[in-house]
Every structure is written in C-alpha cells, then in structure tokens.
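Kindly draft a polypeptide, keeping tokens residue-aligned:

***
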Amino acid sequence: MADEKTFPFEILTLQNLFLREEIRFVIAPGQEGVFEILAHHAPFVFALKPGPLRMRLPDGQDQYVAVGTGFLVVQKERTTVLTRSAERPEEIDVERARRAKERAEQRLQQKSADFEMARAEASLQRALARLKVADYAVVAK
C-alpha cells in the first residue's frame, strides 16, 4: 500500500518489465553523477550510465540492481528506468564479470582505434557495475 513517502517505481529493459515496486527512494548512477529521487520529485529525465542502482523499500530494506545505459524518467504518477540491461545480485556471474573487467582493462592499455576504446570503456563500466552490486549483496547479508 502506497503512502506519502513512497512512490511507484519500475525498471523496463529491452526484453521485459524487470521490476515494479513501491519504494521510498532510488539512488541511481547518472551521466552527470549519482543522484537520488524521493517521493514527489519534480518531473525530470536523467541519463544513466552503467552502475549500481539502489532502492529503499517501504520496510527499510535496500535492493540493488546493476543497470546499463538508459534513462530514469520522473513523472507525477511514477518513476521509470528505461535501460538496456538490469541484473539482480543473484543473477550476476562474478567470475565472468571479473574476466570481462580484466579483458576490458587490457584492451584499454592497448590504445587502439577510438571506437574500440569506447567499446572497451563501456565493457569495463558494465563489469564494474556487476561487481559492485554483487559486493553490496554480500555485505547486506
């Protein structure tokens, strides 16, 4: 049941409706820095970068999701994340994320073509987001 301190929140990926919850706040990784959205926030659109997204549920528990690039859209009736990808901590393959991080770091050291560097940087950011969310889940237990 919603109260004055919560708001409807959803995450939509390219594949599906990933999550729909009533939450107290969300802290998200923006292109211009980390930002927080509370109930009754003014309508706005934020550009997201890959990173950990934190939600506080009405019972006081925090949930974490690794999100990819996309947008967070604040509307009067709900707040929505539109993203290429979203993963819960239990869905993250930590070893695979570590290997992806290492490969991306190696590619960045090679200083190849600009588009290859951009791809390597994006891959590195996704791997780091996954590893952070996986670490947060371990700490929260």
Summary: The mean pLDDT is 88. The first helix runs from residue 94 to 110. The longest strand covers residues 17-23. The beta strands are 7-12, 17-23, 25-30, 33-38, 44-48, 51-56, 62-67, 70-74, 79-83, 86-87.
